[in-house]
């Protein structure tokens, strides 16, 4: 489970996002991060049973993302994130590609998966796979349980125009115009702090897993 103290630290950080406060509360940060690392380690054990492509030697410490923001090109100059992010990519892929992603944040925790905003070569490959094999993707995203957990997959951000390789009359044009291919589900503070939180997250990942397989096959 994620401890209440960890969420309280993140909540206080959001109200005091500056270096002086962070250094004065470094012990609280370290404790919260260790809590997230432990949660991630337990989650990895369960995910290895769901997705055999997840390496057993994957280090949970390396899956918990840095809390320090890159402010070089951002108008928002606050130095720290107000959340812990956990990225668990499929074997052979880097973070930010086909992955499971967990965010831990007071009032805004969620579990997600798929591929968010792929770069042009990967986007082209995924669209090609959809064009060739849309029935498989539709079987995944139109499954009743998938829709209940993650909503309408087609309602993600889309291109305003039709991709130049395809026709507006293509029966799967709503999928071909997508910019991202993700499913995500919000997790309440009460849920993430329960004893069964790791299993809850793993169960949701099991519903995302077929989407990850489809996307990874598109990139093979």
Describe the structure.
- The chain has 220 residues and is an alpha+beta fold.
- It has one domain (4-219): BirA Bifunctional Protein, domain 2 (2-Layer Sandwich).
- Helix content is 49%, strand content 12%.
- It has helices spanning 4-15, 19-24, 26-50, 60-63, 120-141, 144-150, 173-176, 189-192, 197-219, and strands at residues 84-89, 99-104, 109-115, 181-187.
- A four-stranded antiparallel β-sheet has the order 1-2-3-4.
- Helix 1 packs across helix 3 and helix 3 crosses helix 9 (197-219).
- The relative contact order is 0.16.
Features:
9 helices, 220 residues, alpha+beta, BirA Bifunctional Protein, domain 2
Give the secondary structure arrangement, pairings included:
Layout: H1 4-15, H2 19-24, H3 26-50, H4 60-63, E1 84-89, E2 99-104, E3 109-115, H5 120-141, H6 144-150, H7 173-176, E4 181-187, H8 189-192, H9 197-219
Antiparallel strand pairs: 1-2, 2-3, 3-4
Helix pairs in contact: 1-3, 3-9, 5-9
Q: Could you write a compact summary of the structure shown?
A:
This protein has helices at residues 4-15, 19-24, 26-50, 60-63, 120-141, 144-150, 173-176, 189-192, 197-219, and strands spanning 84-89, 99-104, 109-115, 181-187. It has 220 residues and is α+β, with helices and mostly antiparallel strands.
């Amino acid at each position: 489970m994620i401890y209440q103290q960890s969420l309280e630290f993140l909540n206080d950080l959001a109200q005091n996002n500056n270096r002086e406060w962070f250094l004065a509360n470094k012990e609280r940060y370290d404790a919260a991060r260790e809590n997230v690392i432990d949660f991630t380690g337990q989650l990895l054990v369960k995910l290895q049973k769901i997705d055999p492509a997840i390496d057993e030697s994957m280090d949970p410490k390396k899956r918990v993302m840095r809390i320090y923001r890159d402010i070089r090109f951002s108008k928002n100059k606050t130095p720290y994130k107000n959340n812990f992010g956990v990225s668990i990519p499929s074997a052979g892929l880097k973070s930010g590609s086909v992955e499971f992603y967990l965010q831990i944040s007071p009032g805004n925790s969620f579990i997600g998966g798929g591929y968010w905003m792929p770069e042009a070569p990967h986007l082209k490959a995924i669209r090609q796979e959809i064009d060739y094999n849309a029935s498989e993707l539709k079987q995944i995203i139109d499954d009743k349980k998938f829709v209940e957990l993650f909503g309408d997959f087609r309602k993600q951000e889309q291109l305003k125009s039709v991709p130049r390789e395809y026709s507006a009359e293509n029966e799967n044009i709503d999928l071909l115009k997508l910019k991202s291919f993700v499913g995500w589900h919000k997790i309440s503070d009460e849920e993430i702090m329960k004893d069964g939180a790791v299993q809850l997250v793993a169960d949701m990942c099991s519903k995302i897993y077929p989407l990850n397989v489809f996307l990874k096959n598109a990139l093979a």
